[in-house]
Amino acid sequence: MNNQNPDTTANNSIRDIKQRVEEIGIFYEQTTLTPMEARVFALLLLADPPEMDFFAIQDFLQASKSTISNALKRLMNEGRVDYITKPGDRKRYFRVSVLRWLEQIQESFASVGPFVSTLNKVIDLRKDTNSPEFNRELLYIKDYFLFLKEELPRIQAKWNERKRSAD
Amino acid sequence: MNNQNPDTTANNSIRDIKQRVEEIGIFYEQTTLTPMEARVFALLLLADPPEMDFFAIQDFLQASKSTISNALKRLMNEGRVDYITKPGDRKRYFRVSVLRWLEQIQESFASVGPFVSTLNKVIDLRKDTNSPEFNRELLYIKDYFLFLKEELPRIQAKWNERKRSAD
DNA sequence: CATTTAGTTCGGTATTTACAGAACTAAACG
DNA sequence: CGTTTAGTTCTGTAAATACCGAACTAAATG
């Protein structure tokens, strides 16, 4: 049914592309994805068209079904990937859900909260100690996080505003 | 020589404190420290006075010398911990270097760069593809990172300004 | 300069984690 | 309603990682 060029990605040799997937994959591996998750994600970033069915992913990466299944599951849980379906075709076509991915990133930015509360615990537990200098430094760093907690939503708002007025 | 109360931390039972170290430790474990690194870090955050010699750390955490040595090494490389020395005492007293730790955090905030360049690679590799919608989304998310790359230094400057005028 | 002290490094082990393969499931198709 | 399809789940294994213990090193001490 897909009558486009059936290449996985545009006009480059398949070997080249495998290399690119590895390369991009390594970057995302360092942002807390497992090697295979990172490769799946990189592949979907580069694929043309930008959605692939389960078997195509498995075949390209030469991995087992379970590994691909688990990688996709985690990528979907993290909001980086979703899938579309096509009428009269029961396959799922997996793709990077760029906009949800962006939302996840934005939310994670907002998560300074836990740092603040952990520091508060520490500061509270230290309240009877005889280390005023150190305790003051802890208050200082907590202050910084509180500052971020205020400012990050601000720049988020600024971004929203910029994008709103761009249409 | 240390004529303070020799308790590891202030006026709480040692069992309590072990529990606190675990608790605070678990939080830092989730921010890319190994369990033992996280415990060492948590211990130094709670210790009173806020510096401890090698053996005191080892004894408290009931771990091997090598494990403590490696944990301290990594914590020092990451800029979270340093040590002081005392005249006529060849031990090193390890402590959380709050201000360097803060600097590290601030630097890591500034590191949006790699995200942008990875996205640029992806966008470049996709330039001949037939997926305008997807490609536009990628440009959009890249735009967001570029925006952050501008704005984060700004809020950093704002913080510096606030702190400068606070003395 | 032999010994103690304060750690580091090296080699091995146990636990965890990533992945494979095969058995299973649920929906759709003939 | 048996079979194919599109995945998932379960069980085992290989590789990576965290940790231990013992051998080592470098500085200070007697």
TrEMBL record, chains A, B:
Annotated GO MF terms: DNA binding
Coiled-coil spans in chain: none
Alphabetical UniProt keywords: DNA-binding, Transcription, Transcription regulation
Cited Gene3D superfamilies: Winged helix-like DNA-binding domain superfamily/Winged helix DNA-binding domain (1.10.10.10)
PANTHER family in UniProt: HTH-TYPE TRANSCRIPTIONAL REGULATOR MJ1563-RELATED, HTH-TYPE TRANSCRIPTIONAL REGULATOR MMPR5
Name this protein carries in UniProt: DNA-binding transcriptional regulator GbsR (MarR family)
Organism taxonomic ancestry: Bacteria, Pseudomonadati, Bacteroidota, Saprospiria, Saprospirales
